[in-house]
Design goal:
Number of helices: 13
CATH superfamily of the largest domain: HUPs
CATH architecture of the largest domain: 3-Layer(aba) Sandwich
Bound molecules: adenosine monophosphate, tryptophan
Number of domains: 2
Structural class: mainly alpha
Distance between the termini: 25 Å
CATH topology of the largest domain: Rossmann fold
Shape: globular
Largest sheet: 3 strands, parallel
Length: 332
């Protein structure tokens, strides 16, 4: 089976440290080993009903984040989902192989829809089918994402299997989730039980990829902790001290160490000193990326050219796969 990597991020603004550590950073290394396709999933973003005027700036922001993080547009394909019509067409086909029961199990829908499911839009519910189509449109084999996407990937595998079985083919590979690193689930800086997210109303809940050094320092100084010193390595403290666990995980990821290695150095010490060192590491990693993003966005011609070229290359892969799928299905 030909190896191919696919992943994507929604252009909904406020790209944050969780997006970087849980996803983008892990994509970079794949470029040397496999064909890589990185999408800006604008159709997914519509589930949040964004203003039209926000769409293009947000698409450029995500593109700039990919480029500034080391995704090389000469090797990787970088493009916006809606520029390749196969995603939406294949999503319809796959929806006809995805039982309601499978979608009803999706925990992210339950969280995002809230109490009154009747007013949640249909797209929010069927979104994991579109995500399966994104991946299968390229017959991708590896999908690097954060922990929160694991269930959606399992669904994509199930849908691929259902399609293959129905038509008696071995057409879609079952995509492998690639969830690795010390920070696969970065939590809010204000509440260690909540995921760091683009939509949290508090700016202090997240480090965004364009924060400057002063802002990073301020947000980390204000980050919630408890009054205990840092714990000993090898003890289980995570459940009782979620904020401590989160900062230790971030520190480990930013300094390419294991959590235990971080604790071996810091056990018994106060969070104040730890936070100062954490700030230095965060500034060292995010500072250059944020500066490069701002440079790219100040004159977005390069970003736009990357997207145009990427869309063409993406279509060159997806269109023949769609043609073959249509033959399998009997549509041609
Ligand atoms: P989204 O912001 O929902 O479009 O997510 C884009 C990518 O970032 C996906 O691979 C997510 O799994 C990942 N991601 C989002 N939030 C976090 C987080 N708090 N921690 C780790 N990964 C995250
Ligand atoms: N659902 C993902 C998220 O919100 C984004 C996404 C859409 C994606 N299509 C994808 C991720 C395909 C990986 C592969 O984080």
């Amino acid at each position: 089976m030909h190896h191919r990597v696919f992943s994507g991020i929604q252009p909904t603004g406020n790209l944050h440290l969780g997006n970087y550590l849980g996803a983008i950073r892990n994509w970079v290394g794949f470029q040397d080993r496999m064909e890589t396709v990185f999408c800006i999933v604008d159709l997914h973003a519509l589930t949040q009903q964004p203003a039209a005027a926000d769409m293009q700036p947000n698409i450029r922001e995500v593109t700039a984040a990919y480029l500034a993080s080391g995704i090389d547009p000469k090797r990787a394909i970088i493009f916006a989902q809606s520029r390749v019509s196969v995603h939406a067409e294949l999503a319809w086909v796959l929806s006809c192989h995805a039982p309601l029961g499978w979608l009803n199990r999706m925990t992210q829908f339950k969280e995002k829809a809230g109490k009154d499911k009747d007013v949640a839009v249909t797209g929010l519910y069927t979104y994991p089918v579109l995500m399966a189509a994104d991946i299968l449109a390229y017959r991708a084999t590896h999908v690097p994402v954060g922990e929160d996407q694991k269930q959606h990937l399992e669904l994509a595998r199930d849908i691929a299997g259902a399609f293959n079985r129905h038509y008696g083919v071995d057409f879609f590979p079952l995509p492998e989730p690639e969830i690795f690193g010390a920070a696969t689930r970065v939590m809010s800086l204000r509440d260690g039980t909540k995921k760091m997210s683009k939509s949290d109303p508090s700016d202090y809940s997240r480090l965004v990829m364009t924060d400057d050094a002063d802002t990073i320092a301020l947000k980390l100084r204000k980050a919630k902790t408890d009054t205990e010193p840092l714990p000993e390595p090898g003890t289980s403290f995570e459940a009782a001290r979620p904020e401590a666990a989160n900062l230790i995980g971030i520190y480990a990821a930013l300094s390419d160490q294991t959590r235990d290695a971080v604790l071996t150095q810091w056990a018994g010490q106060q969070f104040s000193g730890f936070k100062r060192e954490l700030t230095e590491r965060a500034v060292a990693v995010l500072g250059p990326i944020g500066a490069e993003m701002k440079r790219l966005l100040a004159a977005p011609d390069h970003v736009d050219a990357v997207l145009a070229d990427g869309a063409e290359r993406a279509r060159a892969i997806a269109n023949p796969i769609w043609d073959e799928a249509r033959r399998i299905i009997g549509l041609s």
